[in-house]
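Ticket opened by: R.M.
Priority: normal
Category: complex prediction / small molecule

The reporter submitted a protein together with D-gluconic acid and asked that the result be attached to this ticket for the collaborator who will pick it up next week. Submitted input follows.
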Amino acid sequence: MSAVIVDAEVVVTCPGRNYVTLVVTTSDGRTGLGDATLNGRELAVVAMLQEHLVPLLIGRDPSAIEDTWQYLYRGAYWRRGPVSMAAIAAIDVALWDLKAQSAGMPLYQLLGGASRTGIRAYGHATGRTTPELIDSISQRVAEGFTAVRVQTGVPGLRRVYGITAADADAAESYEPAAALDRPDEEDWDTAAYLRHIPQVFAAVRERFGDELALLHDAHHRLTPSEAVRLGRSLEPFDLFWLEDPTPGENQAAFRLIRQGTTVPIATGEVFTTVWDYRTLVEEQLIDYVRSAVTHTGGITPMRKLLDYAAHFQIKSAIHGPSDISPVGMAAALHLDFAIHNFGIQEYMPHPAEASRVFPAGYRFERGHFTPGDAPGLGVTFDRAAAAEYPYRRAYLPVARLRDGTMHDW
Ligand code: GCO
Ligand code: MG
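Result attached by the on-call engineer:
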């Protein structure tokens, strides 16, 4: 008789930040890993898995990945949403990990094999001031990155998305999900931001020359006309992309942005299914798909989404912040390595403690990753180390305008 799933355990650990990991065990003693981390809402996914989905897995054939995915997605009347899709993603990735381990192959081989020799990644640079920012970019360049996301403080604003507070130790330590009783409060003033940012990009281009790819994340804060103004003001500095210019809910806003500026557009880190992309893909309103494997239902639907986008000349840019665990990161890298329309991969290093908990076989060298050749995902989970870091409730910040009005974060 072929193996069946005998256990699926959900483990929450906080090695520097919270991660939710699914460990699926089969009757022949194999284990597969999945990442179910939803930043700031971790325990909702734990409950979805433990209470609703794990009981359905026991006794199932671990090799039937497509059927299991359809059973959990199509079989639930309440489809979509980040909690459901993160839970399904963890199961899907764990089953792919198991399948590739039994094949004795790294996962990318099952996805069609290598389409490139390395996976280009971009790192994050931040600075409250332009000199601090230039130092931060220099560090990324010294680490080998050929592409850098550039986020800057704005004069007159105390705390801005992506930038460490003035009282923090190091400009590199911006950590959005903080273990506080309430979300931290950041400031926002779109007019001040729009006035300031072109000068910053001018200084950065001047200092680093034409070759370095520069990216910028507007983090859903603008109206379409503000986004057009920003895009046009940054056109002379040849951005690799402008990310999340407007809130993700309204796909039609991207029509207005596309008509107004040639800056390449990336979006989708808060999307959870192909349906969130339909208008954007079919009308070619974006250039990069930002979904995380961890939040979009796993490898199975991500592969389909990226193949669909490929027909419209849209490339991948899989979400890779530090709130995706090394398990989710490995899943992204195997997919990046195999698909044809790879664009770039985000890379924000994990806390050092997380590398103890999740020893990973992928390698970063000269700005590029390779997923490694260990069978499966190539990541292991050190349960004893995980137990040393108990869960801590954490919240992403919120943003308020100068008069106290809540704004999009
Ligand atoms: C990015 C992001 C993240 C998110 C974070 C929220 O482009 O990497 O916007 O840093 O803010 O993942 O959980
Ligand atoms: Mg982003």
